[in-house]
Write a structure and sequence with these properties.
The chain contains 13 helices and 13 strands. It starts with 11 loop residues before the first helix and ends with a helix.
Length: 358
């Protein structure tokens, strides 16, 4: 109403209503402007023990990712070893809430378990949103110099390869090498892991070993007793392999195959078998996580991957040579490994059985 002086006034009750409306609107605006992740914590479950590549990748992410997430949440890491990553994968897949606050640091080992249909696996990486991966340089197939002439001589004693169960991703080079290049190889299964095989290699019990660490590869090559025969290489777009920049003189396996490179299910099987190397350490969200959270975390991972500190940490703590994939790039690699026809999976099993390592 207007007073005699011409000043507009409102009854007290009307003023209170207007004040209440203004306060409510202000609260809504503040809430809308507050990022979802503000004052929250993100949990990263790690499917391995403290130390090692999977744990290291998760801790690099935990340190750098928060500054690229709107709201800058804290990140808490929790190790859940067991079953080659399957225990963590199973619990995360069925129990983690799809609220954007739960991440799984998965690895090539767990992916290999799914690929081979192990009974322990109760998860499906293809149904879990993936925000990105860090992949160390592929393995180099190192051969004892004295054994090298026997590799192409079927009448000679076979060149001996050590393995756990014939399922290491680098064994794709030996299996497909024997099948398509006629390599004279024999496998001894039952080794407990990489360190066990490395010791056997150095003692002369086996003739072939395939490390990925540049320090280990250089140590063997610089001794003069071993040569780099071929390498998995690094995988780019359209499944194009390239040589590791630190070992430019060692041909990729696809170069070694030349015109004997197979096609069809045989090649799909090779890509699937060896492909776990090219995903290596990847971050997943629970099934059903809303796209808005997936998009936010994927964008944060992409920004983190461009951070000079990230490059420093990865080179110092994980690998001097590495690839990074974000979002769809990681998903495509997972599909290359896991989403393959049964005929391709059967092809790999057939080779392993044929050569007596499965």
């Amino acid at each position: 109403m207007k007073t005699r002086s011409g000043i507009v006034s409102f009854p007290l009750r009307g003023a209170a209503v207007l004040f209440g409306m203004a306060f409510s609107l202000s609260a809504v605006m503040v809430e809308a402007q507050t990022p979802y992740y503000a004052d929250k914590s993100i949990n990263i479950v790690i499917g391995s023990r403290v130390g090692g590549g999977t744990d290291t990748a998760a801790r690099i992410t935990a340190r750098l990712l928060p500054k690229y997430i709107p709201g800058n949440p804290r990140i808490i890491v929790r190790n859940m070893p067991g079953g080659g990553g399957a225990i963590a994968g199973n619990i995360f897949y069925h129990k983690a809430k799809p609220n954007g606050l739960e991440l799984l640091q998965a690895s090539s080992g767990a992916m290999g378990l799914q690929l081979r249909g192990r009974d322990i696996v109760k998860f499906d990486f293809l149904k879990m949103p993936t925000i990105g991966h860090i992949a160390r340089g592929g393995n180099v197939l190192v051969v004892r110099k004295l054994a090298l002439p026997r590799l192409a001589d079927s009448s000679a004693n076979p060149v001996v390869v050590g393995t756990q169960e014939g399922e290491e991703s680098w064994q794709a080079m030996t299996l497909w090498g024997k099948e398509f290049l006629g390599w004279n190889l024999r496998w001894i299964p039952g080794y407990t892991g990489g360190s066990d095989m490395a010791l056997a290699f150095e003692r002369g019990e086996i003739d072939v070993y395939s490390p990925s660490s540049a320090a280990d590869i250089n140590r063997y090559l610089e001794s003069g007793e071993f040569v780099g025969l071929t390498q998995q290489g690094m995988l780019g777009g359209n499944h194009q392999f390239r040589r590791r920049p630190d070992f430019p003189d060692v041909p990729t396996f696809i170069e070694t195959l030349g015109d004997k490179k197979p096609t069809g299910f045989a090649w799909q099987a090779y890509l699937s078998f060896t492909g776990t190397t090219f995903v290596d350490k990847f971050l997943c969200l629970p099934p059903g996580t809303p796209e808005t959270y997936v998009a936010t975390l994927t964008a944060a991972f992409a920004s983190m991957a461009k951070d000079p500190q990230f490059d420093t940490f990865v080179k110092r703590m994980l690998s001097e040579v590495y690839d990074v994939g974000v979002g769809r790039e990681t998903v495509q690699l997972l599909k290359m490994v896991l989403d393959v026809p049964q005929e391709a999976k059967d092809y790999s099993k057939t080779l392993q059985h044929k050569f007596g390592i499965n």
